[in-house]
Design brief:
By secondary structure, this protein is mostly helical. The protein contains five helices and no strands.
Length: 107
């Protein structure tokens, strides 16, 4: 147990810095989210999104680019959000492409 005398002087001044370090050290790189976004982009491309949902696919790529920039800057929360947006846009691009291909095959 800490004795009161150890909390005097420099230790008291170091305590807030230590707490801040512990709290900010909890953020981890969004490795899984980045991987999910990349996989969703590949799936969209393989489904024909380049030709049938180009704008939506471009949005997904832009989100992923911003996620990669944020990751490089160690802004993990922003990277996580951008990666999730990239995955959602890529999934939308894939669905649009599949719907448009299906519609075209029926015509």
């Amino acid at each position: 147990m800490l004795k009161l005398r150890y909390l005097s002087g420099r230790c008291v001044h170091a305590l807030p810095a230590l707490l801040l370090l512990l709290l900010t050290g909890c953020a981890t790189a969004p490795v899984q989210e980045m991987s999910d976004a990349r996989q969703a982009l590949l799936a969209a491309e393989e489904a024909g999104a380049v030709d049938y949902a180009g704008d939506t696919l471009a949005n997904a790529r832009a989100y992923l680019g911003r996620a990669e920039q944020a990751l490089s800057a160690h802004d993990y929360e922003r990277a996580r959000v951008q990666a999730e947006l990239a995955r959602a846009a890529a999934r939308e691009a894939r669905e649009l492409a599949l719907e448009r291909i299906e519609r075209q095959s029926r015509e």
